[in-house]
Design a protein that fits this description.
Layout lengths: L1 H19 L1 H16 L8 H29 L5 H29 L2 H22 L7 H4 L7 H12 L6
């Protein structure tokens, strides 16, 4: 259920990122995903869990395409290969750390508390992204002159992958 709705969220993110720019979609995806994670504690049966998983996948699907679009727009065209390599390395790192983080935290607390903790982290990340990341859509002429994105941009991309990873 999560993966199906995640595909829908990915497609919507791509469409809206092209129309409105990736900043708004990224922040909305992070905030919505963070908020949805709190609803896992209210799932009391299989159908309510399916509904929560569907909404979670849809919201999480908004973040990754917008994060990568943001990174691509902020990377100079002569350094896009390096930028893609670095963001890919962070995705791989997230795939290693995310499940371990989720397992350790869930074994010490509960699944609901793990989801709530991750929700708080995503909401905090959404707030940071709102205030730290540049809201402007990069123009093609300006992209070639810009250096690699800031570490905050990479951290946002990592957290988009790291935090939801244990639960997908």
């Amino acid at each position: 259920m999560y993966s199906l709705s995640n595909i829908i969220g990915n497609i919507a993110s791509g469409i809206f990122s092209d129309r409105k720019g990736p900043f708004a979609i990224l922040v909305a995806g992070l905030a919505t995903t963070g908020a949805v994670l709190f609803s896992y504690s209210f799932a009391d049966g299989p159908y309510s869990l399916l509904a929560v998983r569907f909404v979670h996948g849809l919201a999480a699907g908004l973040t990754v395409p917008a994060a990568f679009t943001y990174l691509a727009n902020k990377t100079a065209s002569t350094k896009r290969g390096k930028g893609a390599a670095v963001s890919g390395a962070f995705v791989g790192l997230a795939a290693i750390i995310g499940p371990a983080y989720g397992a350790i935290l869930a074994s010490r607390t509960s699944v609901a508390e793990t989801m709530a903790t991750t929700g708080v982290l995503l909401l905090a990340l959404a707030i940071c992204a709102f205030f730290v990341l540049n809201r402007k859509i990069a123009k093609k002429e300006a992209v070639a002159e810009q250096p690699l994105p800031s570490p905050a941009s990479y951290a946002t991309a990592v957290c988009c992958n790291l935090l939801p990873a244990p639960f997908s």
